[in-house]
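Newbie here. three chains, one complex. Structure please?
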Amino acid sequence: MSVTTKTIALHGGLLVLLFALQFVLPAYHHGNLARIMVLASYAVGYNILFGYTGLLSLGHALFFAAGMYGMSLTIQHLGFSAAPALLAGIAAGVVVSMALALLALRTAGVAFMIVTLMFAQAGYLTILYFGEYTRGDEGFVIQQAQRMLWGIDLSQPTNRYFAALSLFATCLLASLWLIRHPFGKTLVAIRENEERVRMLGYNTFAHKLGAMVISGTISAAAGASYGLLFGYAGASFASVQYSIFPLLWVLLGGAGTVLGPFIGTLFMFYLIDLSSGITTAYMLIAGVVLVLLTLFAPQGLTGELRARIWRWLP
Amino acid sequence: MDLGPYLILASLEGAVTAAVLALTAVGLSLVFGVMRVVNIAHGEFFMLGAVIAWWIAHSMGGHPAIGFAVALVVAPLIVGVIAVLADMTILKRVNYDPERTIVATIGLLYIIQQLTLMTYGPEARPVEAPFNTRLAIPWFEHGENGWQMIWPWGLGTTSYKLAVIGAAAGVLLGVWILMTRTRAGLVMRATQADRDMALAFGIPVEKVYALVFGLGAALAALAAVLIVPIQQAHYLMGADPLLLSFIVVIIGGLGSLPGTVLAAVLIGLSDGIISVFFSPTLAKILATLLVGLVLVFRPQGLFGTRHS
Amino acid sequence: MMLLSTRGLSKHFDGLQAVQDVDFDLPIGQVRALIGPNGAGKTTLVGMICGRIEPSEGRVFFDEVDITALPAHKRIMLGMAYTFQITSVFSRLPAAENVALAARRRLHGDKVDTAVKEALDQVGLLERMDQEAGDLSYGHQRLLEIAMGLVQKPRLLILDEPTQGLADSEITDFKNLIRELAGDTTILLIEHNMNVVMETADQVTVLNFGEVLAEGTPDEIHANAAVQAAYLGTG
């Protein structure tokens, strides 16, 4: 089998499996998997910047929240219906990621991490500051009547699962397409050795800008969908924790692999889900996993798989 | 109260904030300066200092001053040892790679914070100050009989707050002497200037790193012990000192001790005064934006000079 | 006609004069060697030519157009190619992808593959195209670096110490390669190996303490007493 055939079979197989699972899963796990697919889409977006371009952002919650609030505030205060609100959320992601990229990409390395962290924190505080509209930490519920997309009720579990799967499939295939495209290959080269890429005649700033906007836009699409599918928008989705989560998922699943974000999100979600039954300090698990990954498996699950067995994995 | 007395009060409160902040930020700055790594768990070392201080004060009987005095010595020591252990088991093993260190210290942050939640619990608990005499401050007002001295209600401070300012200044002086006048300081500065050269001259760089990491954490813990009689101990209290230390270290110029102290005084004082006019949230928004913009446009800090 | 010229080009770092007032002219089609002792400022000069280093003073002209203000990537797009002194390949990517990255600046689709294979063949690395660049021997990485320059079909090829670390047989192949290219491609060659310089260069420029010490044919330079004192004597 050629690499292309194997790639299509593996990723197509995952999507088919996810489609089939909805008919057999018990209600609890059915709901979880819908949530995981939306969060994994967020991780797919994060992976484009971190895994493929090599830029470690600590501020992606800003993009996730831009999508979520771009969607929910237009519904709540401007009376948008779901479809245009979703678009508004995605547009907010484009604008916010473009603005942050233009600033943050003037720095590199540790400074880039701190700059993204600071601007995301400013965004979170801004949501709290305008509590009159956003209802701050408490957040607000998006009513069932407002969650009708082209006549489909997204609050209904089957529809919700299908919508989450559509989003995830779109993001997964987009990222697969991107890294096989010359633009994506250049991003990988920038991750490996930016100066060399520049001296081959590439405008590396423009490439990194593109990567950050694509990454931010996918994250915003995930944020907007999350709000729409689960009927809630709250400031906690803009907090530092939600910038750390995609980093954690991608590191666990394998940075710079197409499947990594999904695998990492799936594992981490159930790890936290199980431990929160035992203790309220469930973030302890996240901390331990972060440290262990940094120490022993910086390539993550899929990365180790690629290094040891399937060298062709994209 | 008039604006005048109010500003004096705000400056006094600001001076306490500045003193504690300077200690915490110097710890962060030392670690960044010598080891070239950013320690995201720094705020948790601060929190641990406060929680351990409560634990010591709580388990010791007698006059509150005894428990406090013991905490002042023991809490920074325990936290310092924890940090040295973290350095040896985690940071050393990722080779002090800047990005991996940040990720690892984020993990450390959650581990420390959540373990505290599991053992100490979610409550905020006070520690009694060793002494706490109220000191009123006079104000001059132009009244019917010309200028006269009045004692506005609420304008005052406590002997403890003044002691915090003094103690912090003393410790900072000690750190400065350590860095500039002792052999240990020389070794640290040599490691900071050129790690490979220091190795070549037989300086045990790994030991220096472990000790600097421990010292940085101990300074944060000491700051927390000083503040815990004013502000209660809570498992989430590390976030604000972390953010403020970042602001101070970045504005003061990464790794520069005098710049860090100057920035701490500036931020501490303005924090008190700004919060008179703005809501605390707005003040924080402005502060975080400032840090981001300084890093983008003046990476050498506001007071630093650019090296080409 | 001059393909490349510099006028009064200087660079100082913190008071240290790395390159001083260099006027340099390279006509189209010439193979020019740039030699000089270690620390003479060769890499700094070339860095200013291709835009990696900002000059303190002076101007750079390519095709008689002032390019001093252009960023590096735009200069490369005008037809310069630069190979690094310190091997700077993408070590975790296959050899072919390394060359393809260079090729994609001017080609698309299937033409990329053809050009990549051609360039790898020219340096004798065709059988190793699927290996990760980091797994190649040091000498092969140097050759890969050259292939990345060749595939750009540049009008000016700047090679920074290309033969450093190559085996004798590889150096012979390299000399043949330069002779093949000579005429079509203008080449600026920083080189320590005098044997390579003597056999490939049309003209030689000697740099010493950041200044041009001498310029002439390889034979003239070989006979130049000042050059021998500054450079050859120390080698």
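Moderator note: The beta strands of chain A are 140-141, 148-149, 152-153, 232-233. The longest strand of chain A covers residues 140-141. Thread marked as resolved.
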